[in-house]
Amino acid sequence: MSERILTGIKPTGQLTLGNYIGVLRNLAKMSERGECIFFIADLHALTLPIEPETLRQNSIDLASFYLAAGLDPNKVTLFLQSSVSEHAELNAILQNYLYFGELSRMTQFKDKSSKMNESAIGLGLFAYPVLMASDIVLYDTDIVPVGEDQIQHVEITRDLVNRFNNRYGKVLKMPKYEVRKVGARIMSLSDPTVKMSKSDPKGDIFLKDDMKTVRKKIMSAVTDTGSEVKYDPENKPGISNLLTIYAAMSDKSIEEAEKDFVGKRYGEFKTAVADVVIKELEPFQQRYQEIVNNKSYEKVLKDGANKAKAIAKETLKRVHDAVGLLNI
Ligand code: ATP
Ligand code: LTN
């Protein structure tokens, strides 16, 4: 049987080059490898304050970006998390199998909540990994492709699966994460010690930026002292980040990328980085615009939700049986 591959992205803001390199860019290839289930984690987007109109717009944008990444809607299942109510139903059950202590130790929770006033931290933000675990196990997922920051959430899902199966027998499928070798963590162009992140947009390249802006942002990216183009994240975080972007966008290893710039100056190097990014981003953006204009995402999302629901219903029934809920 072929592998089942699942991933989700939150419609929380403008997608960045980090999202593109870390995840989006690889999805089309994935769909040749196994059965793909991709979704828009709109319920997760509610874990931090967001305007209704922004959430709606972001969800449409994200659906269009998924499709622009070359996904064939006949091959992959693409849907909104909120359209398949089984996610929330399974969440209500699984929340009893992850514990306060382990949830408190999640890096993402600590990062996000530390920037907030305690009285404004919602339960959803704290319980985020439970819903994510539900997303994953609902489809008997084998592989979860994510950026580096999400590994911990897949690991806690694995802990939950172990715990649940030890108690009830082999009910849930054990998932594995998969992180790409180059580009699992693209850093901010203005501060290469922090992740490029859509909820902290300083130093981001947005997938909707026009090409002039993209070039300008890359040309003015923070670099390091010295003049050698060398991969050394500790001492040369700026150059290493740009090398990573270059390598990922040209499907090269870091070593091959380094070789392209032996004896070259930073300026020349940055121009080459901008060139590879623009060469791919420009047609990607055109495809995105066409999809937005003709609204082709609507039917894809509807069909996707129906396909997803058929699988999710089966798993939920199995879980009900296991824990003793009557399937009447
Ligand atoms: P937020 O800032 O709202 O937390 P985000 O930009 O981290 O959002 P997500 O929706 O959390 O985006 O992530 C979607 C996917 O993109 C995840 O698999 C995540 O690991 C990946 N990703 C996000 N930022 C980067 C990055 N800078 N480099 C590589 N992958 C990334
Ligand atoms: N937490 C993820 C989004 C996400 C996800 C998932 C990813 C929600 N559910 C299930 C993989 C599998 C994020 O912030 N990128």
Distinct small molecules:
adenosine-5'-triphosphate, L-tryptophanamide
State the CATH architecture of the largest domain.
Answer: 3-Layer(aba) Sandwich
CATH structural fold name of the largest domain: Rossmann fold
Structural class category = mainly alpha
Q: Which tags fit this structure?
A:
328 residues; mainly alpha; Rossmann fold; Tyrosyl-Transfer RNA Synthetase; 2 domains; three-stranded parallel sheet; two-stranded parallel sheet; 14 helices; globular; binds adenosine-5'-triphosphate; binds L-tryptophanamide
In short:
The protein has helices at residues 17-33, 42-45, 52-68, 86-94, 100-104, 107-114, 123-126, 128-137, 151-168, 211-219, 237-249, 254-260, 266-294, 297-323, and strands spanning 4-9, 35-40, 77-80, 143-145, 176-178.
Describe the overall structure.
With 328 residues, the protein is mostly helical. The protein folds into two domains: 4-183 and 296-323, Rossmann fold (3-Layer(aba) Sandwich), CATH 3.40.50; 211-290, Tyrosyl-Transfer RNA Synthetase. It is built from 14 helices and five strands. It has a three-stranded parallel β-sheet with strand order 1-2-3. A two-stranded parallel ribbon has the order 4-5. The chain is globular and about 70 Å long. 41% of the residues are buried. The mean pLDDT is 95. The site of L-tryptophanamide has 14 residues, from β1 and α8.
List the helices and strands and how they pair.
Elements: E1 4-9, H1 17-33, E2 35-40, H2 42-45, H3 52-68, E3 77-80, H4 86-94, H5 100-104, H6 107-114, H7 123-126, H8 128-137, E4 143-145, H9 151-168, E5 176-178, H10 211-219, H11 237-249, H12 254-260, H13 266-294, H14 297-323
Parallel strand pairs: 1-2, 2-3, 4-5
Helix pairs in contact: 3-13, 4-8, 4-14, 8-9, 10-13, 11-12, 11-13
The structure holds adenosine-5'-triphosphate and L-tryptophanamide.
Adenosine-5'-triphosphate (ATP) binds at residues 9-10, 12-13, 16, 18-19, 21-23, 146-147, 149-150, 184-186, 195-199.
